[in-house]
Amino acid sequence: MVVTVDPSSIKGDIWAAASKSSMQRACAAAIAAGGTSIIRNPGNSNDDKAALGVVEALGAQVKQEGNELIIQSSGIHARSTSVHCGESGLGIRMFTPLVALNKEAITITGEGSLVNRPMDFFDEVLPQLEVSVQSKEGKLPLVVKGPLVPKNITIDGSLSSQFLTGILLAYAAAGASDVAVTVTNLKSKPYVDLTLKVMEDFGLEVPENRHYESFYFKGKKPAAAGSRTYTVEGDWSGAAFLLVAGAIAGEINVKGLDVFSTQADKAILQALMSCSAGISIEPGQITVRPMPMKAFHFDATDCPDLFPPLVALAAYCNGKTVLEGVERLTHKESNRALTLQEEFGKMGLTIELQDDLMIIHGGDGLKGASVHSHHDHRIAMACAVAALKASGSTRIEKAEAINKSYPSFYDHICSLGATVKELV
Fold first, then answer.
1. Which of 62, 59, 121, 136 is nearest to 89 (CA)?
2. For residue 224, what pLDDT is reported?
3. What is the side-by-side strand order in the sheet with 153-156?
């Protein structure tokens, strides 16, 4: 699909989409905890749909009633010999240890960029937990055969905290007792906080967090599998693009976000304040409006998904903006550092890459251009937001990449007054 975005002024109210980070963790916790889980405000992105497909393959019953999902689980008892995670990095990393709780061999597959992402972690860690693993030279497909047995282990958290999320959920589901997961070089700690909060909300044992260096399971007797209700949070990752759009192209009110959320991408507020964007935070909504903006320095190591909206923001800030955390961008849907440099370069923006730093020369305006998403949802959205104040129309190829996380994105910015046309 190709869309064009014309220079536009936007205004109005918009509700943030459901968080796929929250939604996918809720699906995993629901099947791990057992009983009946009612999930309100469920997401409908491709990643969310993939998560529901996984829990069904692992034995859960899923049905939708209005704006609620009902997941019924008697534990993890796979009804299929294969599990498909779509293109979800969180999904493959979180669900694989849960799949490994089964004693039968199960094949785990994915699609798109996921087939090229490294899975060496599982080759190295799962055998320590009495799980046999086969991979295609550290890539998908994976074949795992358990059952996983919780033990004291040390894992590397430098690539992603999502691996830790999967291990913690699997240990809780397996009734881990008097064991600890030690983590070195842990990144994205706010996402670990989100995992622990979801575990608590679903009645799973929450391990003792020892300064993010180890997580100790006492072996508390699990609560009886009953019924619980969980409301999926508004998505700070997707809302970051809306907030940046407001700072660039017109006053908008974004509703449905929890300013006390543990989502890492809530840090977009810090960036907006650092660059002197017009922003006010009130109960129930965040208002953003255009103001003269200055270059800023921001460490995105713990929130690497913010790089694309931050680049769009920095393009309209006077001076050289410096973003830290580039090393976290290699194994995303695309190599985002190079993709951002290439696609925004077509729009006239100079981006330098120096080791772990990205330097963005902003303030000279952007020009409309023909750009490509590289099948990366966040690149598509970043280009669309930046196009709102470019000189001339911007054409985005493979624009349907947004379906991975935010299928309503183009509709949402159109409702605010943006001129977006679908060509194919």
1. 121
2. 65
3. 153-156, 179-184, 214-217, 208-210
Amino acid in position 128? Q
200 and 165 in a common domain: yes
Q: Which residue in 47, 201, 302, 305 is the catalytic one?
A: 305
Same domain (yes/no): 54, 180 = yes
Task: Give a yes or no: residue 300 inside a domain.
Answer: yes
> What pLDDT is stored for residue 222 in this prediction?
63
Residues 92 and 151 in one domain: yes
**CA 321 remoteness from chain centre:** 24
- Give residue 220's pLDDT: 76
Q: Residue 424 in contact with residue 2, Cβ under 8 Å?
A: yes
Report the CATH number that the domain containing residue 340 is assigned in CATH: 3.65.10.10
Using only C-alpha atoms, the chain has a radius of gyration, in whole angstroms, of 21
The whole-angstrom distance between residue 365's C-alpha and the CA centroid of its chain comes to 29
pLDDT value, residue 223: 63
Tally of structural domains, the chain: 2
pLDDT of residue 104: 96
Domain-located, residue 56: yes
The last residue of a domain, from among 161, 185, 217? 217
Segments in the chain below pLDDT 70: 221-224, 332-334, 424
Residue 49: enclosing H or E segment and its boundaries?
A: helix 46-57
Rounded-to-integer distance, Cα 359 and Cα 258, Å: 30
Q: How far apart are CA 349 and CA 134, in angstroms?
A: 44
Do 157 and 98 belong to one domain?
yes
- Does 227 map to a domain? no
Residues 205 and 137 in one domain: yes
- Give the whole-angstrom CA distance, residue 418 versus residue 301: 31
CA dihedral 12, 13, 16, 17 (to 10 degrees): -80
Report the phi/psi class of residue 148: left, alpha or beta, with left for phi > 0 and alpha for psi in -120 to 50.
Answer: beta
Burial 352-372 (b: 16+ CB within 10 A, else e): eeeeeebebebbeebebbebb
> Residue 409's domain spans which residues?
2-17+234-422
307-314 vs 377-387: helix crossing angle, rounded to 10: 20
What local confidence, expressed as pLDDT, does residue 284 receive?
A: 87
Same domain assignment for residues 179 and 296: no
Told to judge if 302 belongs to the known catalytic residues of this protein, a careful annotator would answer no
Structure tokens at 276: 């002197």
DSSP string computed for 32-47: HH-EEEEEES---SHH
Same-domain status, 400 and 256: yes
